[in-house]
Amino acid sequence: MSLLASVLLIANCAGPCAQQKVETQLAELVAAVRSADYRGDRAALDRLDAMLAKIPDSSLDEYRAYWRGFARWRRAINGFNETPPPSDLEPDLQAAVGRFRAALERRPGWIEARLAMVGCLGSLMYLAGDDAGKREKILADYAAVGKTLQADGPDNPRVLWIIGGLQMWAPKPGGGDPVKAAATMRRGVECSWREALGGAAPAWAPAWGGPENLMNLAYLYSHGAASNKAAALACAHGALVAVPEWHYVRDVLLPQIEAMPEPAK
Question: C-alpha distances in angstroms, 110 versus 35, 72, 103, 113?
Answer without folding.
Answer: 24, 19, 8, 6
